[in-house]
């Protein structure tokens, strides 16, 4: 059976239902473990994506990796799980390595596909410039799934939810406060991303980028120099040394397409490039290209999107 | 303050990525190695800043071969005091973390820093494993760290926000952007690095839990379709009907 840890403190994110869909493809017996305050009803809905049952420990509130890993490992042992699944997000990155040590089970981090016939699992390596196939030598496997790697599927109905009191010990990490930017779509979750670079000339010109993003319902991102000079917040920086993303659509505006930038975005399904320079390297990685001035093209594109949306709604 | 910084090598960010022996081995032909950017820019520099304000010692550790001495000298030139190399091929994360934990066990470090991830394998695994092997708290993806006696305050990225947290030392921290600014070693640092101690120790026997069986490089994109800049309706139509992404 497969044990899936999900974080449900901020509601049921897309990556959560993707992880459960993935688990269901590995086994018919999928037990979900979560912590925090999610409603009974939200948790029962996870059955629709393939969960057989959900266990929730309300005593654990934060993301303390020691507590969570003890809870998950002891459950994995008592249920004789052959696979423990995480989302490769901030919590998965902190907790999965600990569970791997506790169970002495190999960890495949950042899986992007279901296991191959020979059992190996595909992951991105070299910042997305290549893919590798990881073989796990232990009987139990730990897998953390990269968000947006497989589409969520509905294939069941509500499942039972059980309140448990796991054996997790105390948290040594104390959460003082949480800052949340208002209204943004978190970048790693976004299916559509509008991204801009130094070609925008200055932060005052980002209005048109935001307009296009909001017309599409997309998140915004940027190249590294733009975050470094403070035109945009750091969390928007994508690339080899920033966030790696793989949305369905990535629109790159005024970004040259340096190899370090491409490394973080070349997993995108479709790439659109807008650049004045027909020789910009980004065009080689693009599906659709517009050779033109962003200041002229982007407002037109935004209008075209709005027109399309009004006709298709 | 005794600080251990885990330093890994990484191929220069512009390296051509290719594989040999039937796509099973990374082809190192013509590849220049650098210090993994997260380890150098964020973990090492923040450790040095702490030492400069409150005193202490910064040791770097690398699990690798004699070829890694060059990147270790670079880290010493930036300002680390001492270096330890575990003479072994860092086969998988569990093996690597076990070597580092075995060394750290008897040394009593107050802080152990890793980078957020290596840019070649991007696992984000080693830090959490070290923490578990030493039974210490682990703060992942920290973007800010301030010391206040035995307590440290950190900011870390969480889904769609930033969390301010507090934890007592000893602790393991993986360092992300924001922690510190890149430092360029100066001539004095480079000269001093030549005489700083670089100790080589033998690995302990640890089995690996994972291995890479093969690699592939992504298929090249078919050529880009150029759309006239005055016809954005056409682009939207293609994104809807052909690419099916909107
Ligand atoms: C170790 C290392 C790590 C790095 N990591 C990253 C990373 O993670 N992410 C990242 O992004 N970069 C990274 N970089 C930097 C990278 O090499 C490039 O310098 C950077 O991506 C360039 O940003 P840019 O495309 O916005 O700017 P530029 O290279 O200056 O390109 C601007 C582009 O805008 C176009 N343009 C100008 N005016 C207009 C207009 N009016 N309309 C349309 N187009 C216009 C230009 O033709 C040009 O192509 C890294 C570099 C190093 C050395
Ligand atoms: N061979 C190694 N030697 C020393 N530290 C390493 C090694 N490999 C990884 N690390 C550390 O662990 C961090 C995370 O690596 P990874 O789990 O491979 O993404 C890196 O940023 C380094 O700080």
Q: What keywords describe this structure?
A:
A: 313 residues; alpha/beta; Rossmann fold; seven-stranded parallel sheet; 27% helix; B: Rossmann fold; nine-stranded mixed sheet; globular; binds flavin-adenine dinucleotide
Describe the structure.
The complex is a heterodimer of chains A (313) and B (246). Chain A has 313 residues and is α/β, with parallel strands linked by helices. Chain A has 2 domains: 2-163, HUPs (Rossmann fold, 3-Layer(aba) Sandwich), CATH 3.40.50; 187-311, 3-Layer(aba) Sandwich (Rossmann fold), CATH 3.40.50.1220. Chain A has helices spanning 14-26, 40-44, 65-78, 90-103, 207-216, 224-228, 259-265, 294-311; strands spanning 2-5, 30-35, 53-57, 83-87, 106-111, 121-125, 130-136, 141-145, 161-163, 174-179, 192-196, 219-222, 249-253, 270-275, 288-291. In chain A, helix 3 (65-78) packs across helix 4 (90-103) and helix 5 (207-216) runs parallel beside helix 8 (294-311). Chain A starts with a strand and ends with a helix. The mean pLDDT of chain A is 93. Chain B has 246 residues and is an alpha/beta fold. Chain B has a single domain (2-218), classed as 3-Layer(aba) Sandwich (Rossmann fold). In chain B, strands 11-10-9-12-8-1-6-7-13 form a 9-stranded mixed β-sheet, with helices on both faces. Chain B has a two-stranded antiparallel ribbon with strand order 2-5. A two-stranded antiparallel ribbon of chain B has the order 3-4. In chain B, a hairpin with a 2-residue loop joins strand 10 (151-158) and strand 11. In chain B, helix 2 (69-78) crosses helix 5 and helix 3 packs across helix 4 (126-134). The termini of chain B are far apart. The structure holds flavin-adenine dinucleotide (FAD) and adenosine monophosphate (AMP). The site of adenosine monophosphate has 24 residues of chain B, from helix 1, strand 6, helix 3, strand 8 and helix 4.
